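Quick one: C-alpha cells for this chain, please?
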Amino acid sequence: MTPETGGTPLLAVKNLEVVYGSSIRVLRGVSLDVPLGEVVALLGANGAGKTTLLRAVSGLLSVHSGRIVHGTVQLDGSSITGLATPNIVRRGLAQVMEGRRIFAELTVDENLRAGAFTRRDRANVKDTYQHVLDMFPVLAERHRDVAGYLSGGEQQMLAMGRALMASPRLLLLDEPSLGLAPLIQQQIRDIVAAIAAEGVSVLLVEQNAMLALSIAHRGYVLEHGQVVREGPGQELLGDEEIRAAYLGMGEHGRRSFKDLKTYRRRRRWTA
C-alpha cells in the first residue's frame, strides 16, 4: 500500500545558515521540507551547498569544522539541530555519502549487519536483512564476497542496503549515480523510487537532474547557498530554464540558473 504523502513534513529545514571556520558562510537561509514517503531532489552545481545541507541534517558538520549559526532542523516535529550524529540516526535517519564509503575489507554480509548497529529491536533485524536482500538480489548472490571486489554499481547498492539496515524513516542520498554506467543509474533510480513507495522519505542530492526529477515529488535548486527555485519534480523537469541550466540544453550551454534568469530578464528589457 502506498503511503499518504504531502502532509506534515518528516524533515523540515527552516532558514538554515551554516559557516565553516570563522567566516565562510556556505548556506544562506535555506528552507525545505521532505514529506513522508516522498522523494525530494536537491539540485545544484559543485559548491552550491548541497553536501553541507546533508551534513547539517545528519549532524556531521562539526567533523568538517562547520556549524549552524541560524535556523533549525526538525525531524518528525522535534528539533535535531546540533545533535550528535548517533542520536540523530537513532531517531530514524540514515545517510549514503558520496563515494559509497563501504567497508572494503569486510564481506557484503558484514557490511549489511554493521548498518544495524544502532538498532535496539534486534528481533526484527533479521527481517530487515532479508528484505534488503530481496530488494538487492545481487547482494544476496554475493553476500559472502569481500565488498572491495564488487563493481561500482554493486558497491552503491551495498551502501544503500547498509543504510536501510538501520530501518530509517528518512534516507539521505548524496550523488548515488555518480560514476555509474547509464543502465546501473536507471537501476538505482528505480530502487530509490521503490524505497519511497515503502514509506521512507528520501532527500536526494544528484547532479544528474534528469534522473532525480524523473522520480522526485518535489525539487529544490540550490545556488551559492540559497534556494533559487522550487516546485514539483515534473514541473521543474519541464521548465525550459531548468533544462538549460542543469540538463545541458538551451542557449550557449549556460550552467547557472541565476545567470540564465538574469540574462533573459536583460534580453526582455532591451528587446
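Residues 9 and 35 are 4 Å apart (CA to CA).
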